[in-house]
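can u do me a favor
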């Protein structure tokens, strides 16, 4: 799979997943909300770890910065 998640996007996804996980473990989130957010956090953690988001593939978008082409500077005469 082609990577399409940038460094900042990955960091945000993983941070959100970890915060939700901690809230569930400590009992701050319970019931249906905990289940829904738990599933969402697993998806965010997986896509952040892999670096590919299937939704981004479907939308043909990416947050990954494209490598800049190196251009040689011409010496000034």
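np, heres the sequence
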């Amino acid at each position: 799979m082609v990577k399409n998640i940038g460094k900042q996007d990955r960091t945000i996804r993983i941070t959100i997943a970890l915060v939700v996980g901690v809230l569930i473990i400590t009992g701050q989130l319970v019931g249906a909300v905990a289940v829904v957010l738990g599933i969402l956090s697993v998806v965010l953690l997986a896509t952040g770890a892999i670096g590919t988001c299937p939704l981004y593939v479907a939308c043909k978008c990416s947050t990954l910065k494209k490598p800049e082409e190196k251009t040689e500077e011409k010496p000034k005469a």
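Helices lie at 7-25, 31-50, 54-59. hope that helps!!
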